[in-house]
Amino acid sequence: MIQTFLSKYKTIYASLFVITFWYLCHLFIQSTIIPNPLHTFVTFFRLLQGDMLLHVGASLLRISVSVFIAIVIGVSLGLFLGLHNKLDRIFGPVVYLLYPLPKIAFLPIFMILFGLGNTSKIILITVIILFQILVTIRDSVKGLSKELFYSIRSLGASKVQIYRHLILPAITPKLLTALRISVGTSISVLFFAENYATRYGIGYFIMDAWIRINYLEMYAGIIAISILGLVVFKAIDLIEHGICKWTLLEKGENNSYF
């Protein structure tokens, strides 16, 4: 029965585990730095009636725009390099040279070039997600055997049909995996970027509460950014469940997300 509950309600179990650990830390440490989780959640719901939704919405907008741009550019370039070996030999080394560089270091440059507003922050997040997607898609296409292309061409498939029935089904699961990894990183970077020249964003909200030594609001902001990340992850899971059902069957996963 316990195993059934854990497998069916993973998110609920994980949340209860974290909250229990948090409460135990509050009891043992006895410091305002770690407030009572019950009081924190009361503060969180109170702030939702105020301007916290504006902060969460601003962060979600930056993430959404960045993900969209990164997918369009990253998938296009990844397919292009993966399907053209000559061009990949030219541009591949450049991609692999830039890929491991910490993109957060370019934030001052982006701010100088594109201003202190949303544009520089969106470009920073886009660049972080872009390279992860580009490399993943490029390697996924490279991993497809030539026999698969020979087989589908022998059946008279057009270029559009090759993309639809071979390439896209092969790269989509790995694209979603790359998104999970890169979006998690990008939310962390966004928290840092939102501390500069902005009045809205959950990162700004958390640091502002910390400066005011309002730990209840600070932890409420941490809850908000955690929920933001969870919502993005669950959205990716639901997309995978809708368009990549064969991968779930191969993994033997159940269909419950909550």
Automatic annotation (TrEMBL):
Record organism: Natronobacillus azotifigens
Stretches assigned to the ABC transmembrane type-1 domain: 56-240
Signal peptide: none
Subcellular location: Cell membrane
Superkingdom of origin: Bacteria
Keywords attached to this entry: Cell membrane, Membrane, Transmembrane, Transmembrane helix, Transport
Keyword Acyltransferase (UniProt): no
Name this polypeptide is given: ABC transporter permease
Gene Ontology CC: one annotated term: plasma membrane
Xref: InterPro entries: MetI-like, MetI-like_sf
Membrane topology summary: Multi-pass membrane protein
UniProt similarity note: Belongs to the binding-protein-dependent transport system permease family.
Transmembrane segments: 12-33, 53-82, 94-116, 122-141, 162-193, 213-233
Annotated GO biological process: transmembrane transport
